[in-house]
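Exercise 3.2. Students should predict the tertiary structure of the chain below and write it as structure tokens, then compare their answer with the key that follows.

Predict this chain's 3D structure.
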Amino acid sequence: CITRKGNIMSDYQFKHKPLHENVLRTAGLRSKKSAMFGMVRTNKDGSPRPHQGIDLAVDNGYRVYAVDDGVIADVARGNDGYGWTVTLKIKDGLYTFYAHLSSIKCQVGQQVKAGDRIALTGSTGNARGMTNKAKGSHLHFEVRTSVKPGLGLRGRLDPLEYFKLDDDV
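Answer key:
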């Protein structure tokens, strides 16, 4: 049985993972749950706040891969919370979003195949100073239904519905 989320098939799985090793970040967070998608973080007053993607633990300078065949929809070298980013448009109206990059190896309009290197991990945006796993270095990874969905969880889907994490090593 194929189920749908809006017009997105939920049984669809990416052809490749975003990193060579895909484990959730724990350094600098209250728990692994805080690295996951959804209303998993808290404000200073204790109220819940959203985390729009997942945080995968990785040192700076590691290869970031296209999770599927597609076209690069956006590249940004911003100073906002995400820092340097790449957005990849893949099939069925899905976009994948990669943040806190140190180097971008693709350009808008470029066709890529699953497993192509599109960037290197880094510590840009609000990950500044997180230079290795012990300091919280990570790839922020999202699945979106549009290129720029805005704040909150609207227009975003749980990335773990589209690939599985590796066992913690």
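Discussion points: The two ends are 34 Å apart (CA to CA). The CA atoms of residues 14 and 67 lie 6 Å apart.
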